[in-house]
Structure prediction request, 459 residues.
Amino acid sequence: MLKKRIIPVLLLKNGRMVKGKQFSNFRDTGDPVSQAKIYNAHNTDELVFLDIDATTLKTNTLVDLIKRVSKECFMPLSVGGGISTIEDVRNMISAGADKVIINSAAIHNAKLIHDASNSFGKQAIIISIDLKKENNEYVVYSHSGKKREDIDFLEYLKMMEEAGAGEFLINSIDNDGMMNGYDLELLRLAESNSSIPIIICGGAGHFEHLYEGLNAGAHAVACASLFHFGDNNPTRARSFLLNKGIPMKNLKGIIF
Amino acid sequence: MIGIVDYGMGNISSVYNSLDYLGCEATIINSPEEIEGLTHLIIPGVGSFRQAMQNLEDKKFITPILNHVKNKKPLLGICLGMQLLATKGYEHGETNGLGLIEGEIIPFEIKLHVPHVGWNNINTLKKHPVVGNNVNQVDFYFVHSYYFNVKNREDILTMTEYEISFPSIVAKDNIIGIQFHPEKSQEPGLNLLEAFCEWDGKC
Prediction:
């Protein structure tokens, strides 16, 4: 049986890990390589690295980071932040990333997704979409929540799926860092309009929120604040969810 | 020396890194002449079946791979590399595979979301030097949209459920194919890779 996934998100700014609220007010949360090793020791299902100011891509810091992490962490690694060409995708994958996360560059360029998917397989392409609720409608934002896009969310989902996306990472800007739970309405909307897996992100503040997300149809729950700002870790989260009847990776075969 | 075939299909550095971490001597193979002197061969890969066969052919890797198998040396296919062991594939058009294990690579036609991505357990059908009993019900990391519809049941070592039941590890003589990513499956995955590196190719 396929298990549900918990995906810690490591947000990066100038090579350091940060976490904010509603895409601003960032606080330093440590060194990404040591953090990745700790997550690996917790047999974490998967890791997401997101460079929020997309500057490290240009300076190769992100490539170096992935190279270092993939030498020690034998788990699925997804990377995003400023990826806008096939060359960027290739560089990330050769550095050791299994999947790339594309956000702003996908919005007006379905061809990039089509080409990347054809070259590297759809399993390697995660489309990340940031949304804000305005007048009861979900509005797509790009450039780390700075640019309002004039596109229909559901049409965009369909277009990206046809172009060759392998997974969707759905982020609620309103709920980001608030630790009050995921936007379950947004999750259900995305899930019922997609035939590829959905990762929900934004708002998890305690384990019950992970349960709510997975129970509402998410294939994976992504979180940052939950693990950064509290006495929580993926091992404890997994036990909590298992006790609630959610299928999670069993640790049989692992020698402690 | 263990060789990892680089034929331009995806991230081979993680397979190399995992062998390096395990202390197994490995090398990345860029040209067909390098295959002859190897003890073990690994075909990794992600992407399309058709493109993969085309690349193997263009780089003249097919004959040395088949010779490696004829010489009774162990061969491991991972993910797309496992699928290439089949007779035929249907991704982006019908294409002949390496024909080492009889069967076809077909798409999931199921109600659940595809690709099949995430951690899923394997159910062992029989024993094998690389796949011990201790991996029964262990979770490994999968990511794929097609699966290996194996013709002869005796070539299947483990099965996995995703709405339907499909072969997750196949084996025949000195050949083994793994649908999931052992190099991305933390300790249980590394254990499998280590067992392959120590395997003499006999069952």
Notes: The mean pLDDT of chain A is 91. The first helix of chain A runs from residue 32 to 41.
